[in-house]
TrEMBL record, chain A:
Residues 1-98 form the Nitrile hydratase beta subunit-like N-terminal domain. The lineage of its organism: Bacteria, Pseudomonadati, Pseudomonadota, Alphaproteobacteria, Hyphomicrobiales. This is Nitrile hydratase subunit beta. Its EC number is 4.2.1.84. Coiled coil: none annotated. One of its GO terms (molecular function) is nitrile hydratase activity.
From TrEMBL, chain B:
It holds the Pfam family NHase_alpha. The keyword Metal-binding applies. GO terms for molecular function: catalytic activity; transition metal ion binding. The keyword Metal-binding applies. Gene3D superfamilies: Nitrile hydratase alpha /Thiocyanate hydrolase gamma (3.90.330.10). It comes from the Bacteria. This is Nitrile hydratase subunit alpha.
């Protein structure tokens, strides 16, 4: 999903609001949200991929203006409504006001065909692939070349796991991309590593 | 589902939290003790000192260091440190005199929080997420880490179930210190990679 959450490389943002020792929480309700969505995950109401995607499905204007834990809360509420734990009307009655939720999801997909296994040092390219559902391929690596630096264990395939679709678990490959390839003449020189699912990758040439 | 047309009617965020907590309560899920347990864990158990123990051990015990780089999750388990189910793999990233590693999650906020602590506010902010991959040297300089050009920057975007932690370079004046004392000099920022020690 080419949503506003896919922030890597976007321009126009400001100075990092940084202070060493900065806290994770600023208000008591944030701790409750953090616990309540964790409880829902532990109880199997939804999984982490569904949780992430429900945040991504927030209307862009709301996503950008909401605080981090308000986004967590919106995901939790959206999924509890979608899973039939509570109706939106009951939530709004209890909250004494309207309750903003995320937009409906596009369908998921299973693993992509022609998956290859790669070794450290292999030259790979991220497929030029567009998908409206949940995906863990940041837009800035789409179609870009890189070099495999390591392989992970097999993980649930997020494009399926966020949508209740059956799929095989897949390894991811940590791929090193040169910023010169990602944003030619328009980035600080560095290596950027991304954990890329097998389905998203093809062998270079 | 369009929520933009009625912003003045939106329930305060605290009300929305209380509403879902009440629903969980009604469904017999007993959220209150869970909130207490989770909050205690977030504040008292998932602390950067955990990662500090890992770093200090890696500095002082070459065999542990080797095991840490081979399989991070197994190695930290030796110190009694656990990771949640969806953190399936831990990769330790070694800083050197010529390499600097820094971690980000451009898509959300992923971190090895049981090891290095929950992500601080700036890490979850839009600005860090957008800029850390493309303007890494500039961003680090803004954050007080002005790296000379001969140090290569390696950015790690956390996009799957792998979690990362940076093993900072040990300050030379601390070589020979006991492990306990070394733990105290390791900061959360140095394990995310926005600071060097």
């Amino acid at each position: 999903m080419d949503g506003i959450h896919d922030l890597g490389g976007r321009q126009g943002f400001g100075t990092i609001r940084y202070a060493p020792g900065a806290p994770a929480f600023h208000a008591a309700w944030e701790k409750r949200v953090n616990a309540l969505y964790g409880m829902a995950v532990r109880r199997g109401i939804f999984n982490m991929d569904e949780y992430r995607h429900a945040i991504e499905r927030m209307p862009a204007r709301y996503y950008l203006s909401a605080s981090y834990y308000e986004r967590s809360l919106t995901s939790l509420l959206t999924l509890c409504v979608e899973k039939g734990i509570v109706s939106r009307e009951e939530l709004e009655h209890l909250a004494q006001g309207t309750v903003p939720l995320s937009e409906p999801s596009a369908p998921g997909r299973t693993n992509l065909p022609d998956r290859e296994t790669f070794q450290r040092g292999d030259r790979v390219r991220v497929k030029n692939d567009f998908f409206a559902g949940h995906v863990r391929m940041p837009g800035y690596i789409r179609g870009k070349p890189g070099i495999v630096v390591s392989e992970s264990p097999r993980y649930p395939f997020p494009d399926a796991h966020a949508h209740g679709v059956e799929a095989a678990d897949e390894p991811t490959f940590d791929v090193a991309f040169r910023t010169e390839d990602l944003w030619p003449n328009s980035a600080d020189s560095a290596l950027v590593h991304v954990g890329v699912f097998q389905s998203y990758l093809e062998r270079e040439k | 589902m369009n929520t933009q047309s009625r912003p003045s009617q939106v329930a305060p965020v605290e009300n929305r939290v209380a509403a879902i907590e009440a629903v969980f309560e009604q469904r017999g899920m007993e959220p209150k003790p869970f909130i207490e347990t989770m909050t205690h864990a977030a504040e008292e158990e998932w602390v950067p000192r955990n990662g500090g123990r890992v770093v200090a051990k890696a500095w002082t015990d070459p065999a542990f260091r080797q095991r840490l780089f081979a399989n991070g999750k197994d190695a930290v388990a030796e110190l009694g440190l656990s990771m949640p189910a969806h953190h399936r793999h831990l990769v330790a990233l070694e800083n050197t005199e010529t390499v600097h590693n820094v971690i980000v999650c451009t898509l959300c906020s992923c971190t090895a929080f049981t090891i290095i602590g929950l992500p601080p506010d700036w890490y979850k902010d839009l600005d860090y997420r957008a800029r850390a991959v493309r303007e890494s040297r500039t961003v680090l300089r803004e954050m007080g880490l002005d790296l000379p050009p001969e140090i290569e920057i390696r950015v790690w975007d956390t996009t799957a179930d792998t979690r990362y932690m940076v093993i900072p370079v040990q300050p030379p004046e601390t070589v020979g210190w006991p492990e306990d004392r070394l733990i105290d000099i390791v900061t959360k920022e140095s394990m995310i990679g926005v600071a060097r020690l």
